[in-house]
Structures are given as C-alpha cells and as structure tokens.
From TrEMBL:
The keyword Endoplasmic reticulum does not apply. Residues 396-484 form the Cytochrome c domain. It holds the Pfam family Cytochrom_C. It comes from Pedobacter helvus. Keywords: Heme, Iron, Metal-binding. The keyword Ribosomal protein does not apply. Coiled coil: none annotated. This is PQQ-dependent sugar dehydrogenase. SUPFAM superfamilies: Cytochrome c, Soluble quinoprotein glucose dehydrogenase.
Length: 501
C-alpha cells in the first residue's frame, strides 16, 4: 500500500513536470487565455496539416516527400508513406494536401507535389485512397507545368464536394492572365479528376485567375474561399475567391492601381484583396476559425507568415467580405511559420518552417521544425504574451536606409548582405554595389535576371523597385555602398533620379 502510494506520488510529480515543460507561453486575450504547447519536434519542413476526424489524427506532409500522422491521444508520430519521385529543391517538393472524409463512401487524401522528368518540371495533383491513417492506390488527377519556383500550392474540398487547387504561375508572368493555361489559377475539379459540368467556363478547370504564388487556401463560413499569396517585392495579399474574378497578377498588385494603363487593362476589372501588406510578410498557410471556443477569434482567418515570422489573426466582418482587424502573435519567437489547422474542438495547430531554404537569423534551432498547439486554459504558465494590433496600412514613413533595406531587400540578400549562395548574390564586397552609379540605380529600379555573378548563374530574379520613392531608393543605395565591407561614395537623390531609367 505504502509503496503504491510512493509510486503514485512519483508518477504525479513526473507527469506534472512533463506537462509544465510543454506549456511554453500563455497568450492572454480579452476574455480567454490560451496555452501554447509543443506537440512534436525535430521535423523537416512540415508543409501542410490535415485533421482525420474519424481517428483523431493530424496528417502532415514534409517537403522532401514524407506523409506522417500524429495520434492526438498520445502525440506519437508515425510515418504513413514516403512519396516516390518528389523533386525537392528550394521551394519545390511535397506541398499542400486535403483530406476528404465524406459522410459515407471512400475517403481520400489529395496531395500536390513537384516532379522532374528529364529537364521538365511538373506540379501534380494526386489522389490516394485513405483509410484509418494509411494511404494506397495513387491516381494522378492532373499534371500542369511547374518550375524551380512558384508552384503554389494548396488544396481544399469545397462545401460542394469539389476539389479547389490553388496553383502557382510557375515563374512565368504571362501564365496568370492566360485563361487557357492552368498556372496562376484556382482550379475546380471533380473528385475523380474530371471537369465539373457546372464550372464557370465550359470544359475548363479554371475557376478564378490572376495569381502569382498562392501559399494558403481555406474554406470559410457559407462556403466562402480565402487564399493567401506572395507578391513580388510589394503587396502580399489575402483574397476572397469568386468565380471568374481576375485578381490582377502581373498587371495589378494589391490595392495599387494597374501598373500600366493600356486599353487592355482598362477593359478588365480586377478584384482587390481583402488585405495586403507592403513591406511584404510572406504569408503562408491560412485557416478559418469558425468556432466559438476562443470567442475573440470567432469568424477570423488565422494566417502563418514566413518572412515576418508570426501568426496573424485577421478578424472578418460578419459577412466575411472584409478584414476589420489584424493582430500579430509570436513575432520573431518561433521562426518561420508555414501552416495552420483548426480542429472541430476549437484547438489550433501550426508548424514552423526553419529548415527550409531561407532560414532567418538564429534558426534553425537544434530541435526544429515543430508543430505547436494553442488551446484554451485557465492557468497562466510560462511567459505571458499579448497579441499586438497592427497599425493598418502604415507606410514606411521616413525610415533610414537600414530600415528600408531590411524591409525590401533583406528577405533575399539578408540583413548582413551575405545573400544565399547560389540563390541570392551577396551584396558584401560587391563589384556591382561599389561600381558605376547608373548600373546600380538601374538594377534597383528595373530588377535583374539571368546574370552570372562570380561564376554562379542565378535562376531567381530580382524584382523591380521602381515603386520606391527616389529618396527611399537613394537611402538604400547609400546604405549598401557604405556597409557590408563596401566602401563607395554615397550618391545624391538627383543622381539616382537622373540615372535610374
Ligand atoms: C526576391 C528576392 C530579391 C529581393 C527582394 C532583392 N533582390 Fe537584389 N537580387 C536578387 C537576385 C536573384 C539577384 C541576381 C539576379 C540575376 O541573376 O540576374 C539580385 C541581384 C542584385 C544586385 C546585383 C548583384 C551583383 O553582384 O551583380 C544588386 C546590387 C541587388 N540585387 C540589390 C538589391 C537591393 C538594394 C534590394 C532591395 C531594394 C534587392 N536587391 C532586393 C534577388 C532579390
């Protein structure tokens, strides 16, 4: 009896300790408190999270090709399958998924991933039969052109039982406005891969167009569909998707007017985003919170971001047509965040992406990547955190060259100017930065592509920064010419103005 009692005490201490260790932070909202806890760690770029309501599993993909499950009764993780022939390089690989569990009949897991056959790259939509945490019988539903970047993609099943596939423009600008091509689109597809009879364009998968590189897709109240998307150097977006609407890329970005007024752009009507961000935040996975459990978040979109390393809560208007408030959580705490999932019980799961191609300063940590859980609590444990309300649409007013550089250039060339070898050239000790003012001004104003710099061929492109004010571009130039081991004379606003075109 006494021994049992001692054992009981030991077990109690042990289990308490374990629980407490796992609660990292308490998030204090107006009425509710949320515990942030670690569900699992040491993953390799988890990309998409799905919920199996029959078995209480989370099914997730990792970019190199594995599909795994977490049994939520004990948080144990198991490999379901390694998908063969996934082409993984930088942002390509095993990407979005959707688990389809209808009331009756077969269950399916839809997966999208990149393949490379010879020199050709493809984005693929596959369907696996799903049963109790295992998958079999892959069927290729659709294959479209891919590229070394801009492959999207996310998948959802709409309230109408159709697949919606958000595809990237495959790094070819002309794709998004060409209704005959399937890149840069929301595609609507039957469960068997055929074209639905009631699609808005007869015999076409195309449902909406004008997209660059969507990274999030979710189903809101009343069947509304929302996406998140990366702009080039400006204007990341969250959009509300309507059939046959044109979302503007590459002719129009964010809430800005079309870049060039031509007869053809005048004739088109573009749909503006619900929310857009400049400087860019690199939005990724998005999930609709329709639950009442966390009452402050009811009718919100929860958005993960990569560059701005945060979770954002976008409060929607009652009809879901507008974003009326925005809050930031975990800024610079957990690193890049990739995907988010809301469970029917109101818990929120999300994952980090610190082992991907573009880790931020101080990451990856030894036990990255991780899946976290946010759930209601009545205790306050660990550090305390409150959401920060964003200043809506504040321009970068009168900032220094360093701050402008960090906002517009550092996502690629890095805060220290070292770039990423083979992907983004270093601006440190750079002939281009120290050299001729005209060439440098034109690189910044017009962008750059297809260069070989220091013997390395860069296949990524440098976007044009012609939208910057002359004063801002000059401040950036002077920052890079006097930092990163560069020692060139500064330039005047007039010099920039006269040489940029
Ligand atoms: C989206 C990523 C990205 C952003 C943002 C970006 N660049 Fe670049 N930059 C590149 C790439 C890629 C290249 C090489 C392009 C090529 O191969 O032609 C490049 C090239 C350059 C070069 C030429 C380097 C050389 O050695 O020839 C300069 C200078 C430069 N960038 C400055 C900037 C500045 C200043 C900013 C911010 C205003 C900026 N870049 C923002 C991706 C980026």
């Amino acid at each position: 009896m006494r021994q049992l009692f001692i054992l009981y005490i030991i077990l109690t201490i042990f289990s308490c300790k374990r629980n407490e260790e796992h609660i990292l932070t308490t998030v204090v909202l107006e009425n509710s408190k949320l515990a942030l806890s670690l569900t699992t760690d040491s993953l390799d770029v988890p990309w998409d999270l799905q919920y199996d309501k029959t078995n209480n599993y989370i099914i997730f993909s990792e970019i190199k090709g594995s599909i795994k499950k977490i049994d939520l009764s004990d948080n144990s993780v198991q490999l379901i399958k390694t998908i063969p022939n996934v082409f993984q390089q930088r942002t390509t690989g095993l990407l979005g998924m959707a688990l389809y569990q209808p009331q009756a009949g077969e269950q399916y897991l839809f997966v999208s991933y990149t393949t490379k056959i010879g020199a050709k790259i493809y984005s693929n939509l596959y369907r696996y039969t799903y049963k109790d945490g295992s998958i079999e019988n892959p069927k290729l539903l659709l294959q479209i052109p891919g590229n070394t970047g801009h492959n999207g993609s996310r998948i959802i099943i709409g309230n109408d039982g159709k697949i919606y596939w958000a595809t990237g423009d495959a790094a070819i600008d002309a794709n998004a406005q060409d209704v005959m091509r399937l890149n840069g689109k929301i595609l609507r597809i039957n469960i068997d891969g055929s074209i639905p009879k009631d699609n808005p364009i007869p015999d076409s998968y195309v449902y909406a167009w004008g997209f660059r590189n969507m990274q999030g897709l979710t189903l809101g109240a009343n069947g509304l569909i929302y996406t998140s998307e990366h702009g080039d150097a400006v204007e990341d977006e969250v959009n509300l998707i309507r059939p046959l609407h044109n979302y503007g890329w590459p002719l129009k970005e964010g809430k800005n007017p079309p870049k060039k007024e031509t007869d053809s752009t005048k004739a088109v009507s573009f749909t503006e985003p619900l929310q857009s961000w400049t400087p860019v935040i690199a939005p990724a996975g998005i999930a609709y919170y329709g639950n009442t459990k966390i009452s402050e978040w009811k009718n919100s979109l929860i958005l993960t971001t990569l560059k701005s390393q945060s979770l954002r809560v976008l409060k929607l208007s009652e009809d879901g047509q507008k974003v009326i408030d925005e809050y930031i959580l975990f800024k610079n705490m957990l690193g890049r965040l990739r995907s988010v999932l809301v469970l029917p019980n109101g818990d929120v799961y999300f994952c980090s992406s610190n082992r991907d191609w573009n880790p931020q300063k101080g990451f990856p940590k030894k036990d990255d990547d991780k899946i976290f859980k946010l759930s209601l609590t009545d205790k306050t444990t660990g550090t305390i955190l409150q959401p920060i309300k964003t200043a809506t649409n504040s321009p970068i007013a009168k900032l220094s060259g360093r701050a402008l550089y960090d906002s517009y250039c550092a996502s690629c060339h890095k805060t220290d100017g070292k770039g990423i070898k083979g992907t983004f050239p270093a601006l440190e000790n750079s002939a281009a930065v120290n050299g001729d003012v005209k060439t440098l001004a034109q690189i910044i104003s017009n962008g750059l592509k297809d260069q070989t710099i220091g013997g390395i061929k860069y296949d990524a492109q440098m976007p044009a920064f012609s939208f910057l004010k002359d004063e801002e571009a000059t401040a950036i130039i002077n920052h890079i010419r006097t930092n990163f081991k560069n020692q060139a004379p500064t330039i005047t606003v007039n010099q920039y103005k006269q040489t940029k075109n």
